Amino acid sequence: MRKIFSITMIKNEVDIIETFVRYHLSFLDSMVILDNGSTDGTIEILLKLIDEGLPIHLTFNDNPAYNQSELTTKLFYKTLKKFNPAYIIPLDADEFITTNSNKSIREIIQKDIKDNAINYISWVTYVPTEKDDQSEKNILKRLRYRRQEQHNYDEKIIIPTSIAKKNKIKIKQGNHDLYKVKNVTFKKNTLSSLDLAHFPIRSIKQMKSKYLIGWLANLARPKQVLFDWF
Fold first, then answer.
1. How far apart are the C-alpha atoms of 62 and 79, rounded to whole Å?
2. Which residue has the higher pLDDT, 230 or 67?
3. Structural domains in the chain (count)
4. Residue 227 lies in a domain
5. Which of 59, 105, 160, 169 could form a cystine bridge with 115, CB 3.0-4.6 A?
């Protein structure tokens, strides 16, 4: 059976990291996670999950001026070289692959994905409301309302590694697409049975941390890149 891996960059995701990992390892073969200097207990949670025997591969880069596009692309190729999976899914810790189909997520990926194309999942952003049950720790159960209108870049990608073996690819900031490769046109395949549930804002405390980390990282870069985080 063809292996499916995810790659993720994280920093201070203590409120969501365990749910994120356990959920996705119900259908992924393994997760490769790069930590960018977490100080809130995220690493301790991941180490406990690794001690349980969960297939998590943890690496570190605490440069505050990280470039997500460059680091994610490097992580992609390191994962390809070391594990040689058939598919690699770049995911953020606040994103969860979901489906309304009666098929399993793994079955959909295995059967509906096209190996000669970049495969896209629709991005659906959920928002906190005063109706949320704050005692519910599982973010998938706590946040039940989503935006009526989504951004115009509302897709994320699944990459068949066969494409990356033939072409030197680079993943765009935010994992929304690949940069163009000279003289190559990639086909596009939308996986209509899947969504990527996005939970960028989960609490006041988490929101403050998210923006502080993002702004400090932006200030540390030689060339600042302004974008919104939700």
1. 19
2. 67
3. 1
4. no
5. 160
Q: How far apart are CA 177 and CA 139, in angstroms?
A: 26
pTM of the model: 0.86
CA Rg value for the chain: 17
Closest CA to 227 of 219, 17, 218: 218
Quote the pLDDT of residue 126: 87
Q: Which two tokens stand for residue 201?
A: 């804002």
Integer Cα distance of 87 and 89 in angstroms: 7
pLDDT at 1: 78
What is the distance between the alpha carbons of residues 151 and 63, in angstroms, rounded to a whole number? 29
pLDDT (0 to 100) of residue 212: 60
For 197, the 3-state DSSP assignment is strand
Answer yes or no: is 83 within a domain. yes
The rounded distance, in Å, linking the Cα atoms of 174 and 68 is 7
pLDDT at 135: 78
CB distance 198 to 124 below 8 Å: yes
Q: How many degrees, rounded to 5, is the angle at CA 159 between CA 91 and CA 229?
A: 30
Six-digit token pair at 131?
């109706």
Provide CB contacts within 8 A for 52, sequence distance 6+.
none
For 141, residues 6+ apart whose C-beta sits below 8 A from its C-beta are 133
What is the pLDDT, as a whole number, of residue 77? 98
What tokens does 209 get? 């941390």
229 domain-assigned: no
Could you tell me the residue range of the domain that residue 188 belongs to?
A: 4-220
